[in-house]
Amino acid sequence: MTYSSDFVKVLRPALEQLSDHKRAVGAQAYMKDIAPFIGVATPERRAMVKRIAKGMKSPTSEELGVTARKLWKLEEREYQYCANDLIQIHWSVADRNFLADHVEDLIITKSWWDTVDGLGSVAISPLTDKYGCEKLIEKWNKSPNMWLNRAAIQHQRGRKYETDVELVLRYCDDHSDSKEFFIVKAIGWALRDIARINPRAVRDFLKSHPDLGRVAVREAERGLGRL
Asked: Is the pTM higher than 0.90?
């Protein structure tokens, strides 16, 4: 048996035991019917994944990626969330090729804000902080796939004063004429984060982009309003 097979073998019945039909119906409706749900609360799911992971050896980078891919292929949405939970637990074993070898494919598969933003938090931000991966993020920024664009724009979320403000603002500028909600929202979140550390840069950006989508402007103004 492989690590991925062992993990999924233990995970599936454990997750199904936590199933709540009412919660599943509500989650599926909230997520616009993008996938069926088992109906498991986030704290319970994360605790369960942590228990299972602790009972197994630490995976290699490749084993972690393969396990995430295997979970991504399962139908119910919680399995993708479990993949992100597992990556969050073991992200430190991921090598410098993990984003290119595994995460890129996860971003463009079954794509929606929940999985893409989840990958941003558990893999993209920490691993680009650790390894750089500048060429890969630049590739994502220029991709015709909007979810890769979103991941690039948000790839430094949570860095605070370690944020490369000039780079993130360049990515925001590259997509500033987009009308796609998920891109405009990503720009807004990036600007909101930057507003906390460099409000002048955000004010200058807003002045130089008078046609920026209203959703982005509103998020940026929220960041500035908290100062």
From this structure: yes
